[in-house]
Amino acid sequence: MNTSSSASTANPAIVAQSAVRRLPRWVLLALCLAYVVPGFFGRTPWKSEDMESFGYMLHLAQALGPESVSWLQPSLLGQVEPQGALIPYWLGAWAIQIFSNVLPADLAARIPFVALLGLTLFATWYAVYALARTPAAQPLAFAFGGEARPADYARAVADGGLLAFLACLGLARLSHETTPAMAQLCFSAVLFCALANLTRKRIRALMSGGLAILGLALSGAPALAMILGGGGALLIAFQSNPSNAVRLKRLDVAWLLLACLMTAALVSALGLWRWRVAYARLFDFDAMARLLLWFTWPAWPLSIWTLWRWRHQLKRMSDNLHLSLPIAFTLVAIATTWLSGLSDRALLLSLPAMAALAAFALPTLKRSVSALIEWFTLLFFTTCAVIIWVVWLSMQTGWPAQPAVNVARIAPGFTATFSGLLCGFALLATVAWGYLVKWRAGRHRPALWKSMALPAGGATLCWLLIMTLWLPLLDFGRSYAPLVGKVLSLMGETNCVHYFGLRRAQGAAFEFHGHLKLIPAPTTQQDKTSDAQCAWLMVDTQALDALPKQVDMSAWTLHATVKRPSDNNENIVLYRRHALP
Fold first, then answer.
1. Reduced 3-state DSSP string for 363-432
2. Measured CA distances, 227 to 58, 222, 252 (Å)
3. Which of 112, 273, 326, 470 could bridge across to 91 with cysteines, CB 3.0–4.6 Å?
4. How far from 310 is each of 12, 292, 296, 452, CA to CA, in Å?
């Protein structure tokens, strides 16, 4: 009796074979497609990181602008890319070149990022599956048999982990942008998956791990690649192994460390190291707490539950890779977020590991806790879906009136349009949500992943509704196209435009949407006769104070101030030259 009680305390996972039903693959695939596809298609590049990154890709693919184009130093408006990222811009530029005859440049640039997000989902599932197959993660063996079989148990836990990953609120928008953050998320997830699979698929894991370290470093996060790669090697080194596996473990650790050293040498040769510590917000604990609370929901409460229920295993971390590896990746990502000025893009990298931790809470959840999560999720996402539909109905018909009034106030100039295709997708998703709620409310055999079905389905529903019903409004509000259109209507036809103080995203928008040739404004120290003479000068309002100090304004007359329709803090001041020589 005492032995049984001790074993039960040591291993909190008590799972019968009947509880590890397989989630139908077609359902999981359909859910992933419904999450991945919306957000990549049907829109223009958004402000500001999305537009800026696309600008670098466009410069590499089409050699825009007067500056020389270097694939090792992507530049925009004469400024070298500050993050030291290469691979994301290479992928986008290659896609633009490959699909230039069949797709618009902005849509072509997103094709590789669709694949990166899909690979992230696959790597997250397979990492959780491998961790659940480790001996320490297996459920408690029953005295008379009937416990879950290892492969079935691992598959059910992995399904729950992927659902928890899809349910994270902070994943939706950032994972659908063509930025280095998306590439970093993908390569960090692949590295996480490689380390988790090192004892199962050794050669494949070592190869993918080395490539992930290189990819993460060349995506603007070399220090993080060294920390995760080197830290992962140390975790493997301290794992308990049979005596006949010690030599292989040493070889694995040596390979990972060698991959880190070779990558560090390459990064140094290319000059890609960056110092990004933001001291100003190191002690902003309230903001950090708020970011963690909403960005990683619902993975963070389940992760805390995992740490509590598996607390006895935390004393023997070397024997419990299913805990030590996700904890290490999560803590590194949180520390990076904290040190980088509370960047949500840095916190994005914590989600695969945090989802893995959340997955190991599922075998230990009490029925009351599971019911609380599901009821909260049902109410929250159903309310959000209703709000999305009501606002759309108001924009289309004027009833109820107040939502349309609010939209007109925050997005002046926006005209609602109707798309039968987008409305059809939204209706289909809403009906699917209704069927999911009906299924979950019914009496079915238990399954480990059932508690995550509503959170993942609700998050996917709201993201799909936003990217269908609200897509024209979001595209108007977050795109630079309306601003560019207003400026072009004032300038008329022109061959070139001078600029001063434009942000990189703004410059990319004028080059892409306006097909303008942007030339730096001649400064007071330059020989004016040697500069190109354009009839117009564009200036960002934030640079107006420095304008008269660096540019001879005697040749220019203020013509207009153009406001971005959905942002009063982003205006373009337009000057016209008195007379061309």
1. HHCCHHHHHHHHHHHHHHHHHHHHHHHHHHHHHHHCCCHHHHHHHHHHCCCCCCCCCHHHHHHHHHHHHH
2. 32, 9, 17
3. 112
4. 6, 22, 20, 20
| Chain-centroid distance, C-alpha 492 | 38
d(Cα 337, Cα 367) in Å, to the nearest integer? Answer: 34
pTM: 0.95
3-state secondary structure of 522: coil
How confident is residue 200, by pLDDT bands cut at 50, 70 and 90? Answer: confident
Query: What are the tens digits of pLDDT across the range 159-191?
Result: 999 999 999 999 999 999 999 999 999 999 999
Tokens (6 digits) for 72: 């090792």
The one-letter code for the residue type at 30 is A
Torsion of CA 455, 458, 463, 466, to 10 degrees: -150
What residue type is 462 in one-letter code?
A: C
Higher pLDDT, 243 or 571: 571
CA-based end-to-end distance of the chain:
99
Find out whether 12 and 440 touch, Cβ atoms under 8 Å.
Answer: no
The CATH architecture of the domain made up of 481-577 is 3-Layer(aba) Sandwich (3.40)
Q: What is the pLDDT confidence band of residue 146, given thresholds at 50, 70 and 90?
A: confident
Listed by start position, the domains of the chain span 2-138+147-273+286-364, 367-478, 481-577
> Running DSSP on this structure, what letter comes out for residue 16?
B
- Among residues 577, 530, 529, 522, which one has the least CA distance to residue 554? 577
DSSP structure string for 466-521? HTTTSHHHHHHHHBSHHHHHHHHHHH-S-SEEEEES--HHHHHHHHHHS--EEEEP
